[in-house]
């Protein structure tokens, strides 16, 4: 659930609006052409404005995501053909730390312990080693805290995560290898990842229902 690569390409949510389009086409047969065009325009514009508020309400239901973080990931709705609309969703993975990050984390305390290192020439020397005494826990899912591993997977550097001060805040970091540098931020989920998988059906249903409601409302406003 956590890694240090902050980039995430994104996803396209496809919403089937064939029922609303079919209804609009039927209503257009009893309306003047200019009124029918206005009915299409109003309904689609209003549905497009509803996409972001619906996403901000639904996507954080299982995950700890601020509505502003979700809203920034949701792009403008695109009309594709006659029976579907597409909603691009893309953003970077959320950072983990204290205030000022996407996901709140605690822990990360450590102690400095001297260890003996055996050199190739047969000699020994003392080396300071940081031993973590409290695991780092991040609030990513609402059901509980996610415990970061003692060491990140090999493809993420294979080194322990640690809390680093960033001004008055702390950010979870890890090294990309055994050397002291470079270091990277440890990140959690992006909006286009599992939050969409769990919420896509509900999101689609909300948009479909809203389009039908606005279609009926706009029809009576234009037809009276």
Key structural traits:
single chain, 224 residues, alpha+beta, four-stranded mixed sheet, three-stranded antiparallel sheet, 12 strands, rod-shaped, disordered N terminus
Task: Describe the protein in words.
A four-stranded mixed beta sheet has the order 4-5-8-9, with no helix packed on it. The protein has a three-stranded antiparallel beta sheet with strand order 1-3-2, with helices on one face. Strands 10-11-12 form a three-stranded antiparallel beta sheet, with no helix packed on it. The N and C termini lie far apart (54 Å). It contains four helices and twelve strands. Strand 11 (169-175) and strand 12 form a beta hairpin. The protein is of the alpha+beta class. It has helices at residues 18-28, 33-58, 67-73, 194-223, and strands at residues 11-16, 78-80, 84-89, 96-97, 103-106, 110-118, 124-132, 137-141, 144-147, 161-166, 169-175, 183-185. The chain has two domains: 11-92 and 191-223; 97-185, no CATH class. Helix 1 (18-28) packs parallel to helix 4 (194-223), helix 2 packs across helix 3 (67-73) and helix 2 packs antiparallel against helix 4.
Q: Which word captures the global form?
A: rod-shaped
Oligomer kind: single chain
Which class best fits the helix and strand makeup? alpha+beta
Helix content: 25-40%
Give the strand order, joined by hyphens, for the main sheet. 4-5-8-9
Whole-angstrom Rg: 25 Å
- Largest sheet composition: 4 strands, mixed
Count structural domains: 2
Distance between the termini: 54 Å
Low-confidence stretches: 1-8
User: What is the count of DSSP helices, taking H or I runs of 4+ residues?
Assistant: 4
């Amino acid at each position: 659930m956590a890694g240090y690569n902050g980039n995430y390409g994104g996803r396209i949510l496809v919403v089937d609006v064939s029922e609303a389009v079919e209804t609009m086409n039927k209503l257009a047969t009893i309306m003047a052409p200019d009124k029918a065009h206005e009915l299409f325009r109003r309904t689609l514009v209003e549905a497009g404005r509803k996409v972001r508020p619906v996403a901000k309400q639904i996507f954080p239901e299982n995950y700890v995501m601020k509505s502003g973080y979700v809203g920034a990931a949701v792009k403008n709705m695109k009309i594709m053909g006659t029976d579907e609309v597409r909603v691009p969703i893309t953003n970077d993975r959320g950072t983990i730390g204290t205030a000022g990050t996407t996901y709140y984390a605690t822990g990360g305390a450590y102690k400095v312990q001297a260890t003996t290192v055996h050199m190739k020439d047969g000699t020994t020397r003392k080396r300071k080693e940081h031993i973590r005494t409290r695991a780092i826990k991040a609030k990513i899912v609402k059901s509980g805290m996610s415990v970061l591993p003692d060491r990140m997977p090999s493809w993420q550097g294979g080194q322990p995560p640690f809390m680093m001060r960033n001004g008055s805040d702390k950010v979870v970091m890890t090294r990309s290898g055994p050397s002291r540098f470079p270091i990277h931020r440890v990140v959690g989920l992006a909006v286009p990842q599992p939050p969409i998988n769990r919420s896509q059906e509900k999101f689609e249903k909300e948009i479909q229902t809203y389009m039908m409601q606005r279609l009926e409302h706009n029809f009576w406003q234009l037809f009276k």
